[in-house]
């Protein structure tokens, strides 16, 4: 074994070519370098980084054998002392065969049988085999010595340790059976077929083998052995686990993963929707669940949410953005400690900029710069993209079925369940196996009550310490969202931004329609007004939409639409709005379109639908003569209209945004018919039959979430 020494003129081997050291450089900005010239004087010259060249396995002396290697002490510590002693002994014998010297420091062979100058390598290998055999070693031949040399070159001392190599299950099995399993599993994966019993797979394997090799030619293992073999084949193909787990693995990006860092409020906001794990009492005794749409700011972990009895609509995205961009007014009955004046936020300085913060609750006001959404139809719709573009918000959809891309907002759903849902009557659990047998019989809350409780819960959320929020000057202390917002305010700033009435309309769903002599028609509703007179039958100029006009509508209030004219948005009413005396939603209209049969012209059918709608709403208000499907439709519609959507009224909006990205929406004023929490329902935990002890400043909730302590 040789100790590698480099000097000018030394002949070395690199990538099966012989080189001569032509120069050495030690004082370079990139470290030491070595110049190599072709040994056959062909004129080729190469420059290498010395460290990289020495670590190349193909680099070494031409006749000096492999270079000295440091023993793998970590691996050697896992075997017995006898095996370590034998490996080091074999190393000395291998050195003596290749260099003539057993010890690394020796330069002259002590035994003439191993002198490289007078013997060949084959003679030295045979001499070493004879020596070890005479010393009592068993089963040592010249081939054994040759294998020791190869193992030492490949793995050092650890390569000389004998290792037990048992055959794997796939290696022991009949390759024809393994081939059949691989073909059947790949076929099922391509067809996206549901998983079945392993007995079925064994029977299919028998049929597959009989078809290709004949009856009885290949024996299928017994059921127990077949089950183990099936698991091994599935693992080799990456098909183990449930269908959901396989889809998650397929959608999972390749590691390594870099954590997402947001340094400004609103720099990164994640949106998502999920059914709320609580049953609520809709109108007329109908029991249902609500849809929760939330937005989470990564920099401050601030949370906003919208509850709806039906699926998420684009209007809910508008309401959610409005909540983020507008201060929340303190509700009657809320404790004073929830006000912004009692929080760590510099309230006095902010009120001097925006007077609306005088009676605001302690909740951040943030304008998002980037929205991270999933592949939901609402979140990636053209209307959402257009609305975000008009407000200066970047929309970033994540790959399909990729939950880890929105891990923070997914985790927030679990916190909402543990901190809010499980304390309420009607909690359903995350799946059916966790649901009680008499959940529907509990005294359920109404939609307005749940909405009021959830609004107060969101204010409490911003007073709760979050383990993911740390300040560089206090790294050991977990901050609350309000504390983090207060810390970032000097960096991001708080700027009031005046806006126009078109901002809310921009966020509503959009349809492209023609303006005819009758007005604007869609879904068997006709909208008309004098503002359309100059544009009837005209082209809008938008060639991408075939000259149609941009029309925005509110699915929770279909009695009017907004059309973009050259002068801006104009409100256009439904021609039969005066025939309907009560509010309704698009959900009710769709129901009536399916049950009312068309018997005349389009105009006659629309008038019949308007009369049927008015009759349905009156019967729903009196709760008179409604069928079971009609009760469900009426209950969901009334629950949807009970949750107030942001009106078109305007005010100056205060936003927390960098100076280069100012955008916003409108104020969400209170309405006279809005339901709020009363004095007896001060804290939402009291609704869950829990009460905060008198004379204490905090209440500890028994959950699995770390530091579930509410600062009251």
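-> sequence recovered:
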């Amino acid at each position: 074994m040789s100790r590698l020494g480099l000097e000018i003129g030394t002949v070395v081997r690199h990538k099966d070519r012989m080189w001569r050291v032509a120069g050495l450089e030690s004082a370079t900005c990139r470290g030491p370098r070595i110049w190599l010239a072709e040994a056959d004087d062909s004129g080729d010259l190469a420059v290498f980084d010395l460290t990289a060249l020495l670590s190349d396995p193909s680099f070494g002396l031409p006749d000096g054998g492999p270079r000295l290697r440091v023993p793998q002490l970590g691996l050697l510590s896992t075997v017995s002392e006898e095996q370590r002693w034998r490996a080091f002994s074999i190393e000395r014998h291998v050195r003596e065969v290749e260099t003539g010297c057993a010890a690394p420091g020796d330069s002259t062979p002590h035994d003439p049988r191993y002198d490289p100058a007078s013997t060949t390598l084959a003679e030295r290998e045979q001499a070493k085999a004879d020596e070890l055999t005479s010393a009592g070693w068993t089963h040592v031949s010249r081939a054994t010595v040759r294998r020791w040399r190869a193992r030492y070159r490949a793995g050092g001392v650890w390569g000389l340790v004998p290792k037990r190599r048992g055959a794997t299950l796939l290696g022991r099995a009949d390759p024809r059976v393994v081939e059949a399993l691989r073909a059947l599993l790949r076929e099922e994966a391509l067809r996206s077929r549901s998983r079945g019993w392993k007995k079925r797979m064994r029977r299919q394997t028998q049929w597959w083998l009989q078809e290709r090799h004949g009856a009885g030619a290949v024996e299928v293992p017994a059921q127990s052995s077949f089950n183990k073999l099936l698991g091994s084949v599935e693992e080799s193909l990456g098909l183990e686990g449930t269908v959901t787990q396989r889809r998650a693995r397929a959608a999972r990006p390749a590691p390594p993963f870099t954590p997402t860092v947001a340094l400004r409020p609103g720099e990164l906001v994640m949106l998502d929707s999920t059914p709320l794990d609580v049953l609520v009492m809709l109108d007329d005794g109908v029991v249902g669940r609500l849809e929760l749409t939330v937005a989470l700011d990564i920099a401050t972990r601030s949370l906003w949410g919208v509850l709806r009895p039906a699926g998420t609509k684009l209007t809910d995205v508008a309401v959610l953005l409005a909540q983020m961009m507008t201060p929340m007014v303190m509700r009657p009955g809320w404790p004073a400690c929830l006000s912004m004046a009692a929080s760590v936020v510099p309230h006095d300085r902010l009120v001097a900029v925006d007077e609306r913060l005088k009676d605001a609750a302690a909740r951040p006001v943030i304008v998002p710069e980037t929205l991270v959404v999933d592949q939901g139809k609402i979140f990636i719709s053209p209307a959402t993209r257009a609305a975000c573009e008009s407000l200066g918000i970047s929309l970033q959809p994540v790959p399909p079925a990729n939950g880890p891309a929105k891990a923070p907002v997914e985790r927030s759903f679990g916190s909402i369940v543990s901190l809010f849902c499980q304390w309420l009557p009607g909690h359903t659990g995350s799946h059916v196996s966790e649901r009680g047998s008499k959940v529907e019989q509990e005294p359920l809350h109404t939609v307005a009550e749940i909405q009021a409780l959830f609004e107060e819960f969101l204010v409490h959320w911003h007073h709760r310490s979050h383990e993911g929020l740390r300040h560089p000057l206090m790294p050991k202390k977990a901050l609350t969202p309000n504390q983090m917002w207060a810390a970032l305010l000097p960096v991001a700033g708080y700027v009031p931004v005046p806006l126009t009435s078109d901002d809310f309309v921009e966020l509503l769903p959009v349809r492209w329609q023609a303006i005819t002599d009758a007005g604007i028609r869609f879904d068997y509703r006709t909208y008309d007004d004098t503002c359309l007179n100059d544009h009837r039958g005209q082209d809008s100029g938008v060639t991408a939409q075939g000259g149609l006009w941009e029309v925005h509508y509110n699915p929770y209030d279909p009695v009017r639409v907004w059309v973009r004219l050259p002068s801006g948005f104009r409100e256009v009413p439904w021609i039969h709005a005066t025939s309907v005396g009560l509010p309704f939603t698009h959900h009710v209209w769709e129901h009536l379109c399916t049950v009312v049969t068309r018997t005349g012209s389009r105009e006659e059918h629309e008038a019949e639908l308007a009369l049927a709608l008015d009759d349905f709403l009156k019967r729903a208000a009196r709760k008179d003569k409604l069928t079971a499907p009609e009760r469900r439709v009426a209950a969901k519609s009334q629950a949807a209209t009970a949750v107030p959507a942001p009106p078109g009224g305007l005010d100056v909006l205060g936003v927390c945004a960098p100076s280069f990205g100012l955008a916003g929406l409108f104020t969400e004023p209170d309405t006279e018919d809005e339901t709020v929490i009363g004095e007896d329902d001060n804290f939402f935990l009291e609704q869950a039959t829990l009460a905060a002890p008198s004379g204490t400043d905090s209440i500890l909730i028994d959950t699995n979430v770390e530091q579930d302590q509410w600062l009251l």
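The first strand starts at residue 11 and ends at 14.
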